[in-house]
Amino acid sequence: MTPPKTSPPAPPAPAPVLASTAASVPSRAPEPVAPAQPKKETARISVLPDPPKPMTMSKTQPLVTLTATPIGPPVPPVRIAATESPAPSLINSVPLGLCWTLVAISAAILLIEIWTYIS
Description:
This protein is mostly helical. The chain has helices at residues 19-24, 90-93, 96-118. The termini are far apart.
């Protein structure tokens, strides 16, 4: 039998620094900071493999050719039988002069609305 695996022991904690020892250690001068410069970045571009060779189309089917279709005699147009006209409708009973008068009044009102909007 193999012994069970155990995790390695934790590293010991650092000893606390006492105030008396901290005062006896001389302080070091701060190190000079280098001027900030941008990091150099490099991009690695891999070389692409050779493109694949064009395919040969030797196993394709032949083109379909259309056969000549016979042209038959022209078909005469269909005639629709005229029906008797029903009673005159309401639209036909309105006089044509009244319709043109209403159109002229509407156009005049539209022009007045545009004129007041502009001024």
